Amino acid sequence: MASLILPPLSLYVHLPWCREKCPYCDFNSHAANTFPAARYVDALLADLERELPRVWGRPVSSVFFGGGTPSLFPAGAIDALLSGIRARLRLVPGAEITLEANPGAVEAGAFQGFRDAGITRLSLGVQSFQDRFLQRLGRIHDGQEARMAIESLVHAGFQNWNVDLIFALPGQRVDEALEDVREALSYAPPHVSLYQLTLEPGTPFGSHPPAGLPDADRAAEMEEMLRSTLDEGGLERYEISAHARPGQACWHNRNYWKYGDYLGIGAGAHGKLTMPGQGIWRSRRTPRPETYMDSALDTGGSPGDGHWVLPEDRPFEFFLNVLRLVEGFGAELFELRTGLPFVEVEGRLRQAEKQGLLQREDGVWRPTPMGLNWHNELCLRFLPENSGKWQGTGNVRTF
What we know:
This protein has 399 residues and is of the alpha/beta class. The chain folds into two domains: 9-256, Alpha-Beta Barrel (TIM Barrel), CATH 3.20.20.70; 311-383, Arc Repressor Mutant, subunit A (Orthogonal Bundle), CATH 1.10.10.920. Helix content is 38%, strand content 23%. The chain has 16 helices and 17 strands. It has helices at residues 37-55, 75-88, 105-108, 111-117, 131-136, 143-155, 174-185, 204-207, 216-232, 251-257, 289-297, 314-322, 331-338, 343-354, 369-373, 375-380, and strands at 9-15, 17-18, 30-31, 59-67, 90-101, 121-127, 161-167, 191-196, 236-239, 242-244, 261-265, 270-275, 279-285, 304-308, 329-330, 358-361, 364-367. The protein has a nine-stranded mixed beta sheet with strand order 9-10-8-7-6-5-4-1-11, sandwiched between helices. The chain is globular. The two termini are 35 Å apart.
């Protein structure tokens, strides 16, 4: 068996509150008009303190504030939180620090404060610029607020930012989906994340699907045209859902997808840490914000638990992430990240190659366009033979 080598380390911070819960959202988010921001910051830093022995001395290359709607937190709270993080972890010079934001007058007005606090990248949940589709998605902003939010973040001086769009919406035509992408391109964004609307179990849309959803063929036609339009607009597809200009890919998300390490703090957060000589540790935090705060601030309590990833489960986890990337991977990366010999998976990779799901060139394995479209099915072949139904590896937020 090969040795596990420490990969790059990131920090994920979950801020769980939002104004209203969207009917398609299956993330750990909780609707509230008010919430205890200061107490939650204290709980996050107490949680981080407990984790320090696992990562002592390791540099941190990126921080990601996900949610929920992190931009609902006052800029002062984000400033205090980042100051506390910097006092406890060694952030590398120029570390990418992302905060998710939703359009709206209150949040947009704080963009300058977020930048002054040390946020270097904003991910803006636009979803659509068209009011009728925003209403069907249950969003609380309108198209004009989305436009104003983009203008506000540019005015605040952000040069690294993302627009989040959803397609295959109820009643949406191809030309209407293209209208959203073209309007986003008119602002020359460095990065666009494009997702198909999915009906997740346990959500209102999952229980009661909205009428007028495009069928699979129409959705596939939409996706092909939208991604081609983004490519032609200078944003190259580098991951299943992500397009970016040269040098503007999200470092934090790429670290997930290359099976890197990340601390996860906050209600419902998940983490993954490589421990040479021991294995790979996956952690999870309790999802209820009140329970999380009580546990984190109790010196004798614990805000979560975790488990060691069995060696036979590592290939599936690795491929579930790395085969999202257009750039692919080499045998050395597999061995460094999993601690396993590449020969254990080479046969299954060659079979996927014969089926047109993977292509190989100069020792680099890459998913084909068909492999990207059938990503889950491609990865399932790497589940251990005695595995039951796939339970997932954690609710990690990436935009």
